[in-house]
Amino acid sequence: MATAGEAAAAPAPRARLYAGGRTITAVLVLEDGTVFEGYGVGATGEAVGEVCFNTSMTGYQEILTDPSYAGQIITFTFPHIGNVGTNGEDIEAQTPFARGFVIRADITMPSNWRAAEALGGWAKARNLIGISGIDTRALTRLIRERGFQNGIVAHAPDGQFDMADLKAKARAWPGLVGMDLARDVSALQTYEWDETRWRWPEGYGRQDTPVRHVVAIDYGAKRNILRCLADLGCKVTVVPAQASADDILRHEPNGVFLSNGPGDPAATGVYAVPAIRKVLETGVPVFGICLGHQMLALALGAKTEKMKFGHHGANHPVKNVETGRVEITSMNHGFAVARDSLPSGVVETHRSLFDGSNCGLKVEGRPVFSVQYHPEASPGPQDSHYLFEQFVEAIDTRRGA
Ligand SMILES: NC(=O)CC[C@H](N)C(=O)O
After folding, report:
1. Ligand 1 centre and the CA of 334: distance in Å?
2. Following DSSP, what letter does each residue of 268-280 receive, concatenated?
3. What is the ipTM of this complex?
4. Choice among 62, 290, 327, 350 that is catalytic
5. Residue 380 lies in domain
6. What separation in Å is there between the alpha carbon of 290 and the centre of ligand 1?
7. Do 202 and 92 belong together in one domain?
8. What is the pLDDT of residues 211-224, one digit of tens each?
9. 261 belongs to an annotated ligand binding site
10. Is 374 one of the catalytic residues?
């Protein structure tokens, strides 16, 4: 492994997985000049962003459509991506928000009873650029050692690349720190959500008569969060990221949910935090996930910080410090709440067993709590589903149900 200094001086193209005869049709160029050569998948063109890695073994379609990945190029560490194809159901948003994706093996013919389309064609139709044939283990080790890298993925079927231009673009990209992306991916208008969770054999369901009303602030919400809320009898009104406290409270919610989303929480907090603070003053139960957790922490007076390479995967152990139980969780975040910044009266409820970072908080004596990880899974284990039930119980307790 070259050191950062060597790589900056004269980075050689990384070894290709499939040598001989094949035209290089895509490249991944990192901000330090490191070049990975491979084969284009999906759309042609260029896409610049922060290169991260995701360790999930399943769920690539959910991951690529998770709006939290806006601004990021996802390296899948699992070597076989695309082999179960794509379908119209396993999506967390209508379109992918990831900037691009990096995979090891060539995509094989889809083999799954639900497959409607191959991943390459699906990506192409959605203007998503991918690159295969990459030594994703070497790339992941590089990110783990040096931290998140900005980079650019380029796909040109004729194999012609202006490397100096690509390097300059990778270097020039400003990075996610300070970037508010929630307003780009959020719904523009308020709407109601009534789809419930997927169940064999009928698939997604529709809600019967809801018995509680939750307003979900959409900073880039994954659909499965909304499905989990609807499934538990919540009428879900989704409001745009920039909704004011009045926009939220005029729906007279029994609970307010703060969603996941992309970008730097501090940048989104500029407009989100004042609204959340006013909501908190009303005493209505509040539950946040991921960016929503970070937004709640900021509203309570804590701070967030950029992580070295973040947490992205479906196999992250988290300790519930109140019960001592360990949950295997789904994660996708590059920022974290600084534990030491939590004000008095706000306590840490969950902690990562990978690096000890903060993974949850609650306000003592109040129905206000949040987690850094994704209890809705999609993809991932459902160990943490109890948090949705906890939110509903908090709502019912407050209403005297
Ligand atoms: N999944 C999320 O909500 C991500 C939150 C935030 N954008 C981060 O990277 O930490």
Report:
1. 6
2. HHHHHHHHHHHHH
3. 0.97
4. 290
5. 182-399
6. 6
7. no
8. 999 999 999 999 99
9. yes
10. yes
